[in-house]
Design brief:
Oligomer: single chain
Helix content: 10-25%
Distance between the termini: 49 Å
Low-confidence stretches: 158-181
Number of strands: 6
Number of helices: 4
Strand content: 25-35%
Largest sheet: 6 strands, mixed
Mean pLDDT: 82
Radius of gyration: 21 Å
Shape: globular
Strand order of the largest sheet: 2-1-6-5-4-3
Length: about 180
């Protein structure tokens, strides 16, 4: 992997988030892998729908598969989000052959519609989401193949449930409490 390849993947990943911030559905659509992109690989069969089937999991949503479902979800999100901004942290990029994996934390600031008769945005809401974005190399550059995002519920330091403190009471292993069920 060269730094040029890594930079190209980083650029594609950033373009995805910037298109979301601008609400640019056309641009967002162009960033996702399309059936015609399969012909880029020498051994790919353009008629093989599975080769280019895209997928997406938005936080709290079921798996969406195929361009129709995935792009409809973004149209719905864009139509119902007045303002959204992503601050990406913990970005990690791995490139192997014609596939790239990007993991990151999406620090999201969003605002809903204004209250009645208001001209400003509704209250701003922040949330943190961890995401995995998978890209494929095409003749037109790197295209998004899959996006999976999950909310981060709490900091590990703030909540029980870490490796050091699983947050549950286990019987000690002296045998006094009977067998573990």
């Amino acid at each position: 992997m060269t730094s040029t390849e890594t930079q190209a993947v980083d650029d594609a990943n950033r373009a995805y988030y910037e298109a979301m911030e601008r609400g640019d559905f056309e641009e967002l659509t162009s960033l996702w892998l399309a059936p015609e992109d399969a012909s880029y690989a020498e051994d790919a069969d353009p008629d093989d729908a599975e080769d280019t089937s895209i997928s997406c999991v938005h936080p709290g949503w079921p798996v969406l598969t195929g361009r129709g479902e995935v792009l409809r979800s973004y149209a719905l999100i864009m139509a119902n989000t007045e303002y959204i901004q992503f601050f990406l942290t913990d970005v990690r990029i791995s490139v192997v052959a014609d596939t790239a994996l990007v993991t990151c934390t999406e620090n999201i600031l969003s605002g809903g519609p204004a209250p009645r008769d208001g001209e400003e945005l509704g209250p701003l809401v922040g949330q943190r989401v961890v995401a995995t974005n998978v890209f494929r190399r095409t003749r037109d550059g790197w295209k998004l193949w899959s996006h999976h995002a999950s909310p981060v519920l709490a900091d590990a330091e703030d909540e029980p449930g870490t490796a050091d403190d699983p947050g549950i009471d286990l019987p000690d292993d002296t045998g006094d409490d009977g067998p573990l069920a």
